[in-house]
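=== Per-residue structure ===
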Amino acid sequence: YLMAADFDPSILAFCWQPFVLKWPKGTKGHRGHVPDYFCRLGNGDGLVVDVKRPDKVEANAQQFAMTREVCEQVGWKYKVFTGLPEPRLSNVTFLCGFRQDRYSPGAENVAALIDAFTPGTSLEAGVRRAVRATGRPRPVVHGNVLHLLWHGVLAVDLDGPLDLSSFVAVATVVAA
C-alpha cells in the first residue's frame, strides 16, 4: 500500500498504525482495532486504510464496517486496500525504483524532456528526442523520463504493459 500511496498525487502524507479504536464493552466484535494507515489528502480530508489480502476481507467484514462507521462519524474517508491489479502493480513497482533524486533530470533539463513528449509520443521516440535535445547519454535520459513519470510530470497508462511503445504525454496537471 505504501508504494501505491506514494505514487498517488492526491495523498500528501501518511502514517502507519496511527491510532487504536476501542469499542465499548458489550459491543459485538468489541476487540480493539488498529487501522494500518492514516493519509492526509490534498484537499484536507483524512483517509483511513486497512490493508488485507483479498481472501481475508470477508472474515474481517464486521471490523471493517465498524471502522467505516467511526470514520464517517468524524468526517474521514475509509477504504480497504487489497492490492493493485496487474499490470498496474508491476508498472508502479518498476517506476518506484526511479523516484529517487539521483534520477532527477535537474531543472536545466526538465523543459527539454517535457518538449520531447509534446505532443505525446512513444516512450522510445520521446527518449530519442530528449537525447538529441539535451546531448546527454540515452540511459541517463531514460532514467530521467521514468523519474518524471513517477512524479506525475509525464503520464502513461499504467493499466497496460509499460514498454518502449507505450504512449507518454505531458501530464494534464504538472506536479510541482
Q: What stands out?
A: The first helix runs from residue 2 to 7. The radius of gyration is 20 Å. The mean pLDDT is 94. DSSP finds six helices and seven strands in the chain.
